[in-house]
Design goal:
The chain is an alpha/beta fold and about 500 residues long. It folds into 3 domains: about 1-175, P-loop containing nucleotide triphosphate hydrolases (Rossmann fold), CATH 3.40.50; about 180-405, Rossmann fold (3-Layer(aba) Sandwich); about 420-490, no CATH class. About 40% of the residues lie in helices and about 15% in strands. Strands 2-3-1-4-5-6 form a 6-stranded mixed beta sheet, covered by helices on one side. A 6-stranded mixed beta sheet has the order 8-9-7-10-11-12, covered by helices on one side. Strands 13-14 form a two-stranded antiparallel sheet. Strand 4 (about 70-75), helix 2 (about 80-90) and strand 5 form a beta-alpha-beta unit. The longest helix is centred in the middle third of the chain and has 37 residues, at about 175-210. The two termini are about 45 Å apart.
Length: about 500
């Protein structure tokens, strides 16, 4: 038996895998079972992978009892960096150190090698890729889906049999404690998710009765402000709401009003610049703060709703919760009464409900949803369907507007005492903010092209790149780790060695 593990959502099949897919067949007079598992995004560290994905990876060993004989780790035959290596090491670490003795590397897109051998490719990529292949006992082969050469299948089967022989026929066994911990977490999350879902459905039934009694009147005009961190998918969500296409996805640099008709409603959506995902609010550039303040006074009337966009395909940590809370302070505490959490990339949930995702991610995401009065909605980025997801969202906005008064739209900035040390800290922050903006602008065209390439490759639209870019660095420049967090600032005298919110 073998089990498939993927370090990005491109595997030996074209369809994306968000849940386990099990297939069995007869090969070489042996019964072969293959379990296809959800993948993680290439280059993303383990901490960025959603909790449900990590749990599904660990529990995947239960789908071929008593356990898999081999794991297949697919790696594209493109550029392979140290960031990619660390991502693989961290994710396979979920299974424990013993997994490496059961793992085979399968290089996909073999046609891109052209006249180069796979050994030459491994050598050309340096120590990072050599580390992975050596960690797997130099077990590797190439897969090219453009050809129908059965030899590549035979080579893979030979590798699987060699793994079985090397392990004396023993299957991989996951630590029982690890397995029980994951199962218990899932069990608790399901119970809490059911309670949250029942609470939401009960409120929805009450809202329906109010509609029938005429207590909730449909709005002829709906005014929306989009909020969230950089590249969380605000612009994409705006396009879904207004049924528009954006062929050049890029960072939003200023507030922009977009209008359209959805059924009998005139809908106005104000798209806004985002704040940095991994940096606290004091790193948010002043021009972003100015544009955010301007978003609520962009028209003659206050918005009916703030849509706080949160991607559902990655983790949500305490630093994201704090960043959102701090950046939202400028609107005043009353803003939460008019805010709905809008989860994008709902298609990646697979058979996991949004409530299970909320509960599985833990207290930070639960806090955010509760802060918004348990108001949340999900957009499927692939299957837009008949527009019902947009109509349901607008109904939720109408219900929210009927139950609370609109925000007065007057931004309020918390007062702080400026001391000498505080002033020096602000100077250092200013340099860092300017650096981030400068580097983002410098590489904006390159980042846009990466987004477009990802869109073409995955057919998933305006993909959210949910981390600060890993900027190219030269000597005496700022260094960022794999999550985009500054490690050291040689240009900033007196700056800390690490900076986390």
């Amino acid at each position: 038996m073998s089990q498939a593990e993927y370090h990005k959502p491109h595997a030996l099949v074209s369809k994306k895998t968000f849940d386990h897919v099990k297939r069995s067949g007869q090969v070489r007079d042996k019964r072969l079972t293959v379990v296809d598992t959800p993948g993680w995004w290439k280059g993303y560290p383990l901490i960025d992978t959603a909790e449900r994905i990590k749990q599904k990876l660990v529990l995947s060993v239960q789908h071929c009892p008593p356990g898999p004989h081999a794991f297949i780790l697919t790696v594209e035959t493109g550029t392979f960096t140290e960031t990619n290596r660390r991502s693989i090491e961290e994710h396979l670490g979920l299974f424990g150190e013993n997994i490496w003795g059961h793992t085979i590397v399968v290089f996909t897109k073999g046609d891109s090698l052209k006249d180069k051998s796979i050994e030459q490719h491994i050598e050309s990529q340096g120590e990072a890729l050599k580390w992975v292949t050596e960690k797997c006992g130099n077990r590797y082969c190439v897969y090219d889906k453009q050809t129908k050469d059965q030899n590549q299948v035979i080579q893979l089967l030979d590798q699987i049999e060699s793994v079985v022989v090397n392990n004396s026929g023993r299957h991989f066994e996951l630590d029982e404690t690890t397995l029980k911990e994951v199962e218990e977490k899932r069990k608790v999350a399901k119970v809490r998710a059911n309670a949250r879902r029942e609470k939401k459905e009960k409120r929805r039934e009450e809202e329906k009765r109010k509609r029938l009694k005429g207590q909730i009147q449909p709005l002829s005009e709906v005014r929306i402000v989009m909020l969230g961190w950089v590249t969380c998918g605000k612009s994409y969500a705006k396009n879904v709401i207004l049924d528009k296409k954006d062929v050049r996805p890029s960072r939003t640099h200023q507030c922009k009003k977009h209008e359209g008709s959805v059924g009998d409603r005139h809908v106005t959506v104000v798209d806004t610049p985002g704040w940095w995902k991994y940096f606290p609010a004091h790193y948010t550039p002043e021009w972003v703060k100015t544009e955010l303040e301007r978003s609520v006074t962009f028209g003659s009337k206050a918005p009916h709703a703030f849509l706080l966009v949160v991607p559902a395909d990655v983790s949500f940590l305490e630093e994201q919760r704090k960043g959102i809370q701090e950046n939202m302070k400028m609107f005043g505490e009353m803003v939460w009464r008019n805010t709905i959490v809008l989860f994008t990339w709902g298609d990646t949930l697979g058979n996991t409900s949004i409530e299970e995702h909320i509960e599985g991610e833990g207290e930070p995401l639960r806090w955010l949803v509760e802060k918004c009065g348990n108001r949340y909605h999900v957009f499927d980025n692939v299957n837009g369907g008949d527009g019902s997801q947009v109509h349901q969202l607008l109904e939720k906005i109408e219900e929210m507007d009927a139950s609370v008064s609109s925000c007065d739209g007057t931004p309020k900035t918390p007062e702080t005492e400026v001391t000498e040390s505080h002033r020096r800290e602000k100077e250092v922050r200013k340099e860092m903010v300017e650096f981030l903006d400068k580097e983002w602008t410098r590489r904006d065209n390159e980042l846009e092209e990466k987004v477009r390439a990802m869109w073409r490759e995955t057919r998933r639209g305006d993909r959210s790149m949910d981390h600060i870019p890993d900027f190219s660095v030269q000597e005496n420049e700022v260094y960022l780790d794999t999550r985009g967090l500054p490690i050291k600032f040689p240009l900033l005298s007196g700056a800390p060695q690490s900076e986390e919110s």
